[in-house]
Amino acid sequence: MKSNTLTIIKKEYARFFGDKSLVFTSVIMPGLLIYLIYSLMGDGIGKIISEGANEEVTLQVENMPQSLEAMITEADSAVKIIEQPFGEEEVSLLEDKDLNMVMLRFPENFDSTIATYDPSTGELAPNVEIFHNSTNNASERVYQTLTAMLTMYEDGMSNRFDVNRIDCEVQQPYDLATDEEKGAMIWSKLLPMLIVMMLFSGTMAIAPSAIAGEKERGTIATLLVTPMRRNELALGKIVSLSSIALLSGISSFIGIALSLPKMLNTGDDVNIGFNYGVNDYIALLIVIIATVLVMASMVSILSALAKDVKNAGTLITPFMLVIMLCGLLPMLQSGVSENLAVYCIPFYNSIEVMAGVLGHELNWNAVMTTLISNLAYTGIAVWGLTRMFNSEKIMFGK
After folding, report:
1. Structure confidence by residue, pLDDT tens digits, 283-305
2. Domain range spanning residue 250?
3. SS3 state at 46
4. Domain CATH for 62
5. Structural domain tally of the chain?
6. H or E segment to which residue 129 belongs
7. Does one domain contain both 118 and 221?
8. Residue 270 to residue 191: CA distance in whole angstroms
9. 18-22 contact pairs (CB < 8 A, 24+)
10. What is the pTM of this model?
């Protein structure tokens, strides 16, 4: 009995360890995937923090109190302090998300006012106002620093003043980022990865069976002996797979677009709907079509290399890893690249363009560079798949 058990164990070990692709996807790839994702996230977060910490921010202070002047000056070494009054017109400047600025207003005679304030009277405490723009990383950084510093000082003063009290008579919110900008920031971080992963899922659902499945069933031989050129067969496979995957991706995209606003509803009156124009939708459609063409091309080539559908899934899994890593990048970046060479990198170019469009930073040069480069990669893939269809060794294992 022990002998039979050992025989079965040896047989399974031989089957598993004899298949290098199975060993890679089952043993090596999980750890590699976790390492790469968390390393990329750590490096990206560290880069954002270091870049944000070095960005100079202008802090305009009105009625600077002597008791806090030294503390505010030392709060952030990258802050340039300007002591002068400001009004609504100056505060409205913060609506420009590219402006590294924070405005801080203390009540007049702040030190004497909080010294004589008695919380037991029920009167409202003096209010310190901090105006910032949450979509600007540098402005948000200084805002958080000032809020934490003033809150600690307030706790030590037995609540003799408030910071950004919401019931005070102020004509505009303290966060000058518009609802449209806040919504765009959320979409630009989340949607690119979701769109690409949905397109990939649609491609994965049909591509392996369309080529590797035909090899497994033996029907590929019938196609190859028909009176058609092999490049026509390759192009037909890629275009048909791309269109079906695109339909799947669009369906999933609509579902996400309708559900995410409800899922992300925090109770605040923040509009995170799709506030985009016709040009934005056209740019997204162009990039999605170009992306799915490259994706279907790559998956088709891997499927042609596989012996059967199961083996195709094994070969495609590392490709999925690359897609996932590219999809994570918008979450770890503070903006999109202006270097057009970046938009020649497959998949990463699509992610960058999507993030730019969804973040209201549409760049048609980037869109067209992405389209042209992805079409070129698709053409190369069609040529490669044609060569594979001409190879009896690849198609029939001879």
Report:
1. 888 888 888 888 888 888 888 88
2. 180-396
3. helix
4. 3.40.190
5. 2
6. strand 127-131
7. no
8. 18
9. 21/311, 21/314, 21/315, 22/314
10. 0.69
